[in-house]
Amino acid sequence: MSSRKDRSADDIRRSTERLQRARKQPGASPLRGIGAFGMIGWSVAVPAVAGAFLGLWLNKVAPQNFSWPIALILGGIVVGAMIAWNWIDKETPKAGGDNNHTDANEGDKHDG
Asked: I want to staple 47 with a disulfide (CB 3.0 to 4.6 A). Which of 72, 80, 91, 101 is the partner?
């Protein structure tokens, strides 16, 4: 019976390790990709639309020789593109891998 208990303990240990690895390193998900498209789209669309409305208001309050809405729509697109770029940069895994993983490996190298 002790070998059966040991096998059960090993099964539980392996199962727990698998679950911990899955939590630490989630795989790619189609829903995550759709969410990324949504985030990028909204981060560009909202500043552009806000620029359009601000431009319409400025055309009434402070008319100029140029079109405020067009200028501020372009400005909103630039700001939105910078926000999207920053978000993509944070979400994209780096080529060097996860920092915690490399730190753990470096500690092993120094020990032995």
From this structure: 80
CA distance 67 to 15: 63
Q: How confident is the model over 22-48, as pLDDT tens digits?
A: 788 767 777 777 888 888 889 999 999
Cα separation, 48 vs 40, whole angstroms = 13
Q: Report the predicted TM-score, pTM, of the whole model to 2 decimal places.
A: 0.57
| Neighbour tally for 67: CB within 10 Å | 14
78-96 b/e with 16+ CB inside 10 Å = b? ebbeebbeeeeeeeeeeee
